[in-house]
Amino acid sequence: MHYAQFFRKLRELKGLSHEALAGLARCHRNTILNVEGRRPVKFKTLARLMGKMGYATNSAEMASLALLWLESVSGLDLADPARLGPVRQKITTTPVPPATPPTSSWKPSAGPGWRNGRSAC
Questions:
Q1: Which structural domain, as residue segments, surrounds residue 52?
Q2: CATH code assigned at 73
Q3: How many CA atoms, within 13 angstroms, populate the side-chain half-sphere of residue 109?
């Protein structure tokens, strides 16, 4: 199952229309349509929408959605034990570089595309 299908099932179980969820999440209806239309979305967006539907971050539904999303973006079949073993091994043996504090105090200047220090996007 694709994460978009699972997300739609969860939304429908809550009895929410696209418009109702968009209203709860204070986003455009197209955001919901993009998720359910299998367009690429950040997991942060999915997690926020799930929270607005009342699903806890540590819920089974959130965990299932996260795995389905990860499968979608990585191209890996995480349900296949034969493939999962090497993936887990690679994840656990890949060194994580230590976080380094920022060394510069760069701040955006007022110029094309910037308004009051904020991006125009």
A1: 3-77
A2: 1.10.260.40
A3: 1
Average pLDDT over residues 88-115: 58
- Give the type of residue at 106: W
Length of the chain: 121
Which residue is associated with the tokens 């739609």? 8
- Greater confidence (80 vs 39) lies with 39
Please answer whether residues 16 and 53 qualify as being in contact, where contact means their C-beta atoms are separated by less than 8 angstroms. Answer: yes
Using CA atoms, how far apart are residues 4 and 14, in angstroms rounded to an integer? 16
CA atoms of 76 and 90, how far apart (whole Å)? 13
pTM: 0.66
CB 63 within 8 A of CB 56: no
Phi, psi of 119 (to 5 degrees): -65, 150
Q: Position of tokens 């200047």?
A: 109
107 within some domain: no
Residue 64 forms part of a structural domain: yes
Which pLDDT does position 42 carry in this prediction?
A: 94
Residue 53 lies in a domain: yes
Q: How many domains does the chain have?
A: 1
Task: Indicate if the alpha-carbon torsion angle 14, 19, 20, 23 is positive or negative.
Answer: positive
